[in-house]
Amino acid sequence: MSLRAVVRGVGHYLPERIVPNAEFEATLDTNDEWIRARSGIERRHFAAEGETTSTMATTAARAALKDADLEPSDIDAIVLATSTADLTFPSAATMVQADLGMDSGFAFDVQAVCAGFIYALSNANALIISGQAKRVLVIGAETFSRIMDWTDRSTCVLFGDGAGALVLEADEGAGTAADRGILSTDLHSDGRHKDLLYVDGGVSTGTTGYLRMQGNQVFRHAVEKLAATATKAMERAGVAPQDVDWIVPHQANIRIIQGTAKKLGLPMEKVVVTVQDHGNTSAASIPLALSVGRDRGQIQQGDLIVTEAIGGGLAWGAVVLRW
Ligand code: UT7
Predict the structure, then answer these.
(1) pLDDT digits (tens, 9 = 90+) for 12-44
(2) 280: Cβ below 6 Å to ligand 1?
(3) By the number of CB atoms within 10 A of the CB, which of 121, 122, 206, 266 ranks highest?
(4) Domain limits at 262?
(5) What total of structural domains would you count in the chain?
(6) How many CA atoms, within 13 angstroms, populate the side-chain half-sphere of residue 30?
(7) Catalytic positions, please?
(8) How far is the CA of 64 from the centre of ligand 1 (A)?
(9) Given 124, 152, 173, which residue is the final one in a domain?
């Protein structure tokens, strides 16, 4: 027997305002065709004035709690993955804790940029299997629209805002790959690549700063590293690619998603794809895809899921779980 962190509920939130690619044509030397062909993105959501990472995270968390049929007081911990917290501190997670009306438990942010939700899942899993928490809200939430340089066509057309959340709950499993819950995790970072994707502001500059990315350089690392981490996580879980029901990848670029699936020997029919509707929502992209994939009827209880992401740092990793 072994303790497993099992998904009990899922939910998401997307801001009301949808921005199609064509809207950028008025202000930038770009077009719908280029954005679709190079990234697979067709539209994205942008937060309204007054909407923040923590407000979107709270709405997604409420949806996941409702789905789990639980109250905020049933939660022991909140782990929130974000690189766009409302303020430098306190954490967005503690803001969500307050907004949910929780007067117990503990909450903290995890910052691993686009790999943030993988890191958050891994942390939440460790809290559960070590007995420190029984139920954990794991959230990915971002407002990347607030760190865009709207004059830089190579970045500002790629990102979007949103939030997704899971409720993980401790449950006894047999200790085999047939168990529900998180079966394995695999994390990596390599700070030597920090200049490929970063924000040029922060405490050291006294500004919020803007996202800067050498997209084609990040792309070069992505497929190889994602396929390798997914393979490692599958080995650790004791499963093979043919056992997998769904790949739920970070949604940055359809060409990276296709390349990784091909390298893993899995057809695109087994991949949950939301990049066309959400753009790249960084740490929010995987929980958004899990929630939308469940709502579409793609992800069903008992399905074996491989989820993987890479982003600034570089930081990357994968999680294998049975829904
Ligand atoms: O989520 C975190 C991790 N991030 C990623 O995974 C992103 C990884 N990278 C990518 O997704 C792709 O590299 C991009 C979508 C960012 C770019 O696609 P690419 O095929 O690598 O294009 P490129 O950067 O090599 O640029 C090709 C051309 C350039 O023009 P020249 O130098 O060939 O004349 C760019 O200036 O496309 C130009 N370009 C654009 N043209 C029209 C760049 N942005 C645009 C644009 N519209 N928005």
Answers:
(1) 999 999 999 999 999 999 999 999 999 999 999
(2) yes
(3) 121
(4) 181-322
(5) 2
(6) 23
(7) 114, 250, 280
(8) 35
(9) 173
